[in-house]
Structure formats: C-alpha cells, structure tokens
Design a protein that fits this description.
Blueprint (H helix, E strand, L loop, with lengths): L19 E2 L8 E2 L2 E3 L3 H8 L15
C-alpha cells in the first residue's frame, strides 16, 4: 500500500495520489511544481523503512 495501512490504495509509486505544492516545501521530495505533500502515515512508513507494524528489522534471514 502507499502508506502501509490496511485498506490504503495499492500503487507502485507511493506518492501517486499525493499533490505537490510550494506550500509543502521544504520537503524531502520535490518536483518542478513544488514539494510532495506527504501524509503522516507515509512519513511514519518511510521512517520505519517500510515495516510500519514491526519497526526496523536488524537482520534479514535467508
């Protein structure tokens, strides 16, 4: 999903439904029309490196 939450839209690009605006600057992600306006859930998902439920994993088992 775009923010790791059940029921959120499933897209290959997590910012597919976000708007961009100069009002969202400064921001981490920008375009020619301003910065991407992210949601709190998206920021938490990115901060948790995509594992919003369990937090960051220390090791990956193979």
């Amino acid at each position: 999903t775009i923010d790791g939450q059940p029921g959120s839209p499933k897209k290959m690009l997590m910012f597919a439904n976000n708007r961009t605006s100069p009002n969202c600057c400064p921001g981490t992600f920008s375009t020619s029309t301003g910065c991407v306006c992210t949601t709190e859930n998206q920021r938490d998902f990115i901060a948790g490196r995509g594992d919003i439920v369990n937090g960051v994993k220390d090791e990956i088992e193979v």
